[in-house]
Design goal:
Largest sheet: 10 strands, antiparallel
Strand content: 35-45%
Radius of gyration: 16 Å
Strand order of the largest sheet: 4-3-2-1-10-9-8-7-6-5
Mean pLDDT: 93
Structural class: mainly beta
Order of helices and strands: EHHEEEEEHEEEE
Number of helices: 3
Shape: globular
Amino acid sequence: MASPPSTTLSNLSGTWTMNKSLSSDIQPALSLQGVSWFLRRAISLATITLHTRQYDDPAPPHSTHIDIEQTATGGIKGTTELRTLDGQIRDHTDYVFGTVQGRSRWVGLGEVEDAWLRGAGAGDTGKPPGTWLMGDGDTKDGRLVSVWVKSEPKGWVAEQVWGFQNIEGKRCHVRLVVVTKGEERKELRLVYDFLGREEGGSR
């Protein structure tokens, strides 16, 4: 399902579900991150839904928050992500990845160093990265979302860039992901379908 014009990086509030046919297989990356085979398999079979609320602090510096309640079918326990896009490193713990350090911020495309995350190259997943849509109706002031996560105990780093791309002729919300551990590297394209705003209009 294409993302409507009302969904931009200025307003991701609403309900999203991962489009598995357009997304990369997530199991190789989860394996590199030390997730058990049983949990990897369960996640890969489940329908993943994101209940998202985005808002800015009313007081300066008006930092953007993206709060995500992630649910899954098949009896898998959900997770919560509370992201503040201010570039500060914060600790986070959940049952999938354990304790990690994370940082979220706004970036211009020229600030993205990794070629895959910039939308270049064919990758190794059969799901090419695509070109970021950089218009005012797609970004927030010409910027994309950058997410960095590090697991000290397990030795991996994951980097993501979020935005919108045209995938098979449709405008879609996309997250490009790179997971590295030592010399190993996995690249992902995750595509999400928009299901609508939740009641109350703030989500």
